[in-house]
Specification:
Strand order of the largest sheet: 3-2-1-4-5-7-6
CATH architecture: 3-Layer(aba) Sandwich
Radius of gyration: 18 Å
Structural class: alpha/beta
Bound molecules: zinc ion
Number of strands: 7
Number of domains: 1
CATH class: Alpha Beta
Shape: globular
């Protein structure tokens, strides 16, 4: 509980439906795959929404855009099978390219209205020293979508908007954060997370995957060093009401 604000950190272990919004195809699994796999164990239905087309990072310059996309999605499908993610959506904005923030926000609002998540996951756009614009824009747009999705004068897809009836989002969970308020126990799911990371072969050579898994595992151990469990992921779990006009939200 926050001293400054006097309200509880939302409980996410009983999340029913999660929309996990990511800039690139591997960010959810790298940053928070252990938490998501553990929440699947608790009964959550997970949907991934990927903002960019991811074409800049593929390891072989000779692959066409079509081949690259096919390989990227195949990686993602195999990783999803391990974490337990049955639903994937892609927005296709150009990886590390030029695109409009409000288009991204509209598409995210549309998917919130479609999926009706009780919990939204995204990367913390206010992470200190985040230099990658895709990460900042995806996190900002997801956070703003999570407070504006109920305003039906903001139009998305006519059919989606017409069929939508308001539902509450209980929490926005930021990962890759400089200001965590929760260490989530991933000791039971870190093996699955590591297996999922090893699926990302279009963007990492084998040696790089070894290094990635080693680093994320060491980091998960360090994050949990003061806890009663061995491995954790750092989260900033926020009620949406703190995402607008609340100066103390930083210390929540
Ligand atoms: Zn990324």
């Amino acid at each position: 509980m926050s001293d400054a604000i006097g309200i509880e950190i939302p409980e996410i272990v009983n999340a029913q439906r999660i929309l996990a919004i990511q800039p690139h195809y591997d960010d959810n699994d790298i940053s928070v795959g252990g938490t998501l796999a553990a929440l699947v164990d608790g009964g959550a239905e997970i949907h991934y929404l990927t903002m960019s087309d991811d074409l800049m990072g593929v390891i072989d310059a000779s692959w066409s855009a079509e081949e690259s996309s096919a390989r990227l999605r195949d990686d993602q499908r195999r990783a999803a099978g391990i974490i337990g993610v049955p639903f994937q959506y892609w927005l296709g904005y150009p990886d590390a390219g030029s695109y409009d923030y409000f288009d991204v926000r509209r598409d995210m609002i549309k998917h919130i209205r479609l999926v009706r998540p009780d919990v939204v996951f995204t990367m913390d756009p206010w992470m200190a020293y985040e230099a990658h614009t895709d990460h900042v824009l995806a996190g900002r747009a997801a956070a703003e979508a999570a407070i504006l999705y109920g305003l039906m004068r903001i139009k998305t897809d006519a059919e989606v908007d017409e069929n939508y009836r308001f539902h509450p989002i209980q929490a926005v969970v930021f990962h890759g954060t400089s200001y965590p308020n929760t260490v989530f126990d991933i000791s039971s799911s870190i093996e699955r997370k590591n297996q999922a990371l090893r699926c990302y072969k279009a963007q990492f050579h084998e040696a790089s995957l070894d290094g990635l898994v080693r680093r994320t595992t060491e980091y998960a151990g360090r994050i949990a060093r003061d806890e009663t469990f061995e491995f954790g992921e750092a989260l900033k779990i926020m009620p949406p009401s703190l995402l607008h006009g609340v100066g103390q939200a930083l210390t929540f």
